[in-house]
Amino acid sequence: TALLSPSWQIPQEGVESSLRQLLIEAFVSAGRVDNITMVMGLHPQYLSSFWKTQYLLLRMDGPLPYYKRHYIAIMAAARHQCSYLVGLHIGEFLQAGGNPAWLQGLHCAPQKLRNLNEINKLLAHRPWLITKEHIEALLKTGEHSWSLAELVQALVLLTHYHSLASFVFGCGINPEEDQDGGHSCQPPSPHSDSSPASDDSMGGSGGKDAMQEVEVLMERMKLLQESQLEEEGVTQEEMATRFEQEKTESLLVAPSDIVDHSLQSNVLCFVEDPEFGYKDFTRRGEQAPPTFRAQ
């Protein structure tokens, strides 16, 4: 849906020059311009803030060596089964001098990194269950203990990549040409009247097909809303059922009970307890953990 955002097609003064400068800086820094940067570059001001944050986390001075930062990024992305980010940071991990043996799976990593698994799992799916005891266990004096500075950086990396995985999924970002199954992703010209994604950037006619499916689905939803206004006595529950039926009938959305068997072992090998996931903490009749609420 992000690729359909109309704001991306509005030309702005200096957008091309500022984007060009950002892409040059990214290339000089990382030696490549990944597809996340290309897609986010459609909003240069946002990309600028994001890229500076990313640079500080991964490439500036800090208590954790570079290869460990990338391994933590792999752990976080694998928790959400984001194969794009896992593949990206496997390459970065190796370039930073990481031990290839660690890539066989989490069980091959040092115990200190494996100790992050529990808090990684909770942060990804049920962060309200984290207590001070989880922090104390990691900081406890011992052979595999974390310093406070190291742990702070590790936790920021985990949460950063949990969020970035959502961005990757939400924008449908594909692997680069040099990754398995990858192809290029090129941002549209701000002055072009054409579709935001070219055929090449979306893998041939697949981009057009997907966008047409989105348009058909949106038209169906619009008709449902109009019919709701015309009909009397239609409840919210009935409308929700109708929307869900339209969604599942669309080719765009696969049924939730279909398991994605295309996930490669190089993603799942970094995940322990893969069945652990989000669980609603506001169910009636259950003792819910304390949470912060803002009105």
Q: What would your notes on this structure say?
A:
The chain has 295 residues and is mainly α. Among the domains are: 49 residues, no CATH class; 126 residues, AhpD-like (Up-down Bundle). Helix 4 packs antiparallel against helix 5. The longest helix is centred in the last third of the chain and has 25 residues. The two termini are 28 Å apart. 22% of the residues are buried. The N terminus is likely disordered. It catalyses: a hydroperoxide + L-cysteinyl-[protein] = S-hydroxy-L-cysteinyl-[protein] + an alcohol. It comes from Herpetotheres cachinnans (Laughing falcon). Keywords: Cytoplasm, Oxidoreductase.
- Low-pLDDT stretches are 1-11, 181-206, 251-262
Number of helices in the DSSP assignment: 12
User: What Rg do the Cα atoms give?
Assistant: 22 Å
Corresponding CATH architecture of one domain: Up-down Bundle
Q: Report the strand count.
A: 0
Q: What is the CATH H-level superfamily of one domain?
A: AhpD-like
Helix and strand element order: HHHHHHHHHHHH
> What fraction, in percent, of the residue positions are helical?
40-55%
| Overall pLDDT score | 75
Which CATH class of one domain?
Mainly Alpha
Q: How would you characterize the largest beta sheet? A: none
What is the beta-strand fraction?
under 5%
Question: What's the CATH topology name of one domain?
Answer: AhpD-like
Family: Belongs to the sestrin family.
Catalytic activity: a hydroperoxide + L-cysteinyl-[protein] = S-hydroxy-L-cysteinyl-[protein] + an alcohol
GO molecular function, one term: oxidoreductase activity, acting on peroxide as acceptor
InterPro entries: AhpD-like, Sestrin
